[in-house]
Amino acid sequence: MYATFWSLVPPLVAIILALITKEVYSSLFIGIITAALFITNFDVVSAYTTMFNDGFIASLSDSGHVGILIFLVILGTIVVLMNKAGGSAAYGKWAQEKIKSRKGTLLATFALGALIFVDDYFNCLTVGSVMRPVTDKHNVSRAKLAYLIDATAAPVCMIAPISSWAAAVAGVVEGTDGLTLFISAIPYNLYSLLTIATIIIISCFDIDFGLMKKHEDNAKKGDLFTSGEKVADDGAFDAVSDKGRVIDLAFPVIVLIIACIVGMIYTGGFFDGESFVNSFANCDAPTGLSMGSVAALLITVVFYMSRKVLTFKNCMESFPEGFKAMISPILILTFAWTLSGLTGNLGAAEYVSGIFEGSAAGLTGMLPAIVFLVAIFLAFSTGTSWGTFGILLPIVVGIHLPGNLQIITIAACLAGAVCGDHCSPISDTTIMASAGAQCDHINHVSTQLPYALLVAAVSFVGYCMAGFIQNAWIILIISLILLCAVLFAIKKFLVIPEEA
């Protein structure tokens, strides 16, 4: 079954089961069992051993994965500290006075996500913890908050030259200046740019469709969770101190951003003489984020104790509480990483890249559109955008396409990776967005999917034209006009008014 269509069956089984049963853990576990059975040709004993040795243990012994888990736990602890100190409650009251409408709340959430462009994991959890009290007060559904977080995080990182994503792309493309290629591809990254445009349009003109409209209509009546069970009490107003101020939320977040940036450039050799840009390009994002978050945690504890809003005991009690708050995303990530690793052992990447490489030689103008679709499928099946462009980018660069076509095709690969990542229930970024919004994971996936598919369809049309026109401004303007036309047509013809 190695490097055949069967290599894609385990993740597809997990995804389909998750969407049908709405049970993430069991669906992922069945996908893992399926992959282990395929790898061992249905030898049950060997499959059981493989599931642990090459699956769970391998995924949890990966240094990058451990770095992300440390970052998750530390960030959960910082959020608990902010809540206990009264910072979240104070910010919620301040924002309620400053932000008067749901529209303002949606745009403020997007703006905060756009400002935190360093890393998508960091973006998802920070924006969620900061904005949850505000969106709850303005009756924005948790599903809509999760969408705003997810649809901002990866697209913003994908068009920011200084981000962990830029570093990952630069590191994948060997033998050439990866960062220059990344920057050149930004104007053609249609999915990321159009997703950002979609957020602004639907927020300004109150356009909701699909399951999201049901969630938003219910939220306006006070039900923020609709069909999914309430994930957890975010504890935003469980303060142990009555001295909390907005600074008690703003200071830890600012310190966290600065510390994580310093941690990332440190791992890239900035303090050994490397330039700022090169140190970002060469950084180890999981290690940098975990180092930065621990430093931020220590500074935050000292800050709260010096302000006398928390005692040392209060701070220490926050550690296990922060860990408990992150148990769900840690479990889902562990299952997702394990499934992805076993799928890789089955040769899924070799199968997809082999099909693509064999058919690419005779294609020119339609190549960006085809690469876009292949990247979507691979990212959706494996749940990793980084893995997707890690597989496809060397192939695209190796084809040596003429002129601007190579840049457009690289952009299509990156855009498809983000799109597939958005659509996949087993994507770590999607899981993080659910965790950040404290939203039922399947609710987030099912409400986000129609938006992601709409933008993907418009982007596909754009890439069909881009292979022949090869002008970023023309393609962007046409794609944006098409996106606006579709969204306003949906608002006029498909969305049933509430009073109807």
Describe what is shown at a glance.
The protein is mainly alpha-helical and 500 residues long. The protein is built from 24 helices and no strands.
Walk me through the topology:
Blueprint: H1 9-21, H2 24-39, H3 44-60, H4 63-85, H5 87-98, H6 102-115, H7 120-137, H8 142-158, H9 164-172, H10 178-185, H11 190-205, H12 211-220, H13 247-267, H14 276-281, H15 285-307, H16 312-325, H17 327-345, H18 348-360, H19 367-382, H20 385-398, H21 405-423, H22 428-437, H23 441-469, H24 472-494
* Rg calc: 22 Å
Pattern of helices and strands: HHHHHHHHHHHHHHHHHHHHHHHH
What are the segments in which pLDDT stays under 50 over at least 5 consecutive residues?
none
Strand content: under 5%
Count of DSSP strands? 0
Structural class: mainly alpha
Q: Helix content range of the residues, please? A: over 70%
Q: The biggest beta sheet, please?
A: none
Shape: globular
**Helix count, per DSSP?**
24
> Averaging pLDDT over every residue, what do you get?
83
Distance between the termini: 54 Å
